[in-house]
Amino acid sequence: QQPVQSPQAVILREGEDAVINCSSSKALYSVHWYRQKHGEAPVFLMILLKGGEQKGHEKISASFNEKKQQSSLYLTASQLSYSGTYFCGTENNAGNMLTFGGGTRLMVKP
Amino acid sequence: EPEVTQTPSHQVTQMGQEVILRCVPISNHLYFYWYRQILGQKVEFLVSFYNNEISEKSEIFDDQFSVERPDGSNFTLKIRSTKLEDSAMYFCASKDGEGSEKLFFGSGTQLSVL
Fold this sequence. Notes:
Chain A is mostly beta strands. Chain A has strands at 4-6, 9-13, 18-23, 30-36, 43-49, 54-57, 60-65, 70-75, 84-91, 99-100, 104-109. In chain A, strands 2, 4, 5, 9, 10 and 11 form a six-stranded mixed sheet that branches. In chain A, strands 1-3-8-7-6 form a five-stranded antiparallel sheet, with no helix packed on it.
């Protein structure tokens, strides 16, 4: 079962913040976040394992609420380079296949 | 950083023809995957491969699809008789561990079925 992402699209001005959510109806072992630029392969951002941890990558961080089966990706002080489609991928058990959500298109304007 | 390489980058074929998409995973990786992405849509899992056999496959991966690791470096996806709806970007990915390791994606093969 694929995770559900929201919102489907976001338009920001440079310097603004955004939150992208990913939720699953099944218990999750891990959540992966990837960013894909148009015409390119998805690029890994971070993995969160069950345990409710929060991770950071420059000005991009994420949280994972195991009980709610949700993860959120936080983009702060957005830059033009943040534009792209963000996908969350979820695993129900360790080593399972990664199932991706429908993606969130982020556009950062000057 | 090491890369997953895919060839060709674009493939155009006629409906009903067989195509083979090729991938060279990162050399010390043991787990291999094929995903596809129809234009503007999400990345969909097709199949995972470990220890020379399929470990998981999706509903999309029907009898028309097969995967092979013919030698120590290549990993191929074959579509026996292509259909119009097989047109998509096909991504190969690999990882080195069994657990929740990050996937390394190749740059994809854009398959167009006419």
